[in-house]
């Protein structure tokens, strides 16, 4: 009976380790959007709003950033967060793209 309990414990411990490892992966931040990515380029995404080419994107105005865009869903104060324009990726809170819409 002792060997059964030990075996049961080892199996449960292994399962717990696997669960913790997968939970850590699930909680890991998504990768950052690469400015050179095709989708990012087509939307004029820049990780630093100040580097937006205003001649190419006349819609851009100083002060517009992902952090104050209605589509950005990162928490206040975070340096990056999710945006539905780039599913599965993270945008810089200081970034900007041509889909920018002020938060109301």
What do you see in this structure?
The chain is mainly α and 104 residues long. It folds into two domains: 1-30; 31-104, High-Potential Iron-Sulfur Protein, Chain A. Helix content is 30%, strand content 6%. It has two helices and two strands; from the N terminus they run ααββ. The longest helix has 26 residues, at 2-27. The chain is elongated and about 75 Å long. The chain starts with a helix and ends in a 12-residue tail after the last strand. The model has no long low-confidence stretch (mean pLDDT 87).
What is the topology?
Layout: H1 2-27, H2 38-42, E1 80-82, E2 90-92
Antiparallel strand pairs: 1-2
Question: What tags apply to this protein structure?
Answer:
104 residues, two-stranded antiparallel ribbon, 2 helices, 2 strands, iron, 4Fe-4S, metal ion binding, metal-binding, transport
